[in-house]
């Protein structure tokens, strides 16, 4: 499975530099992001970018579409298996394990889809929105992933609850 994932990614990304190389660039050579984004480089070209535009949509559809379908099918099978467990307590425990994975998947895909939509259909939006979305896409998933998985640890969860209770009690004390 890992090799097929690497092969698919390489196969989809490999044509992009060759598609970009054929353009003449006449606009500013300054990118709006701190990293090289295919759609951003396409916009610097003077010639028609329709082939790259279609290929970019194809790549997003292949990755997000196929991945979403496979994730949905795997969770349908997991849900079917979990619901067949006799013990109510064990069912809840098994479903609780899936919640953090679903959150991690959503933390990855939602910024990616948002960034793609902003770049494809948000020409009228201020540059700040484009920058913000690019940094959300780049930084939020790796920053939030450890939090999503560690919040399931009972000791960490108890410490967080205690910290919020302490902050809440201090606010109440200060207002009195």
Automatic annotation (TrEMBL):
Cell compartment(s), UniProt: Membrane
Lineage, highest ranks first: Eukaryota, Metazoa, Chordata, Craniata, Vertebrata
GO terms for biological process, alphabetical: G protein-coupled receptor signaling pathway
TM regions (residue ranges): 56-78, 98-118, 130-149
One Pfam family cited in the UniProt record for this chain: 7tm_4
Protein name (record): G-protein coupled receptors family 1 profile domain-containing protein
Keyword Ribosomal protein listed: no
Primary site of residence: membrane
Keyword Transmembrane helix: yes
MF-aspect GO terms: olfactory receptor activity
Domain G-protein coupled receptors family 1 profile per the UniProt entry, residue ranges: 1-149
Swiss-Prot/TrEMBL keywords: Membrane, Olfaction, Sensory transduction, Transducer, Transmembrane, Transmembrane helix
Gene3D superfamilies named in the record: Rhodopsin 7-helix transmembrane proteins
Membrane topology designation: Multi-pass membrane protein
Any one of the GO CC terms: plasma membrane
């Amino acid at each position: 499975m890992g090799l097929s994932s690497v092969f698919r990614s390489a196969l989809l990304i490999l044509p992009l530099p060759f598609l970009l190389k054929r353009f003449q660039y006449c606009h500013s050579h300054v990118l709006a992001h701190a990293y090289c984004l295919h759609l951003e480089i396409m916009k610097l070209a003077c010639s028609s970018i329709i082939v790259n535009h279609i290929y970019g949509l194809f790549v997003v559809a292949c990755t997000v579409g196929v991945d979403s379908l496979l994730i949905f099918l795997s969770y349908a099978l997991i849900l079917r298996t979990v619901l067949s467990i006799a013990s109510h307590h064990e069912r809840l425990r098994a479903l609780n394990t899936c919640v953090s994975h679903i959150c991690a998947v959503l933390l990855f895909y939602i910024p990616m889809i948002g960034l793609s939509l902003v770049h494809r259909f948000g020409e009228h939006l201020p540059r700040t929105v484009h920058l913000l979305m690019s940094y959300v896409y780049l930084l939020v998933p790796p920053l939030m992933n450890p939090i999503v998985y560690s919040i399931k640890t009972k000791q960490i969860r108890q410490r967080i609850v205690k910290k919020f209770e302490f902050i809440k009690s201090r606010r109440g004390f200060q207002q009195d």
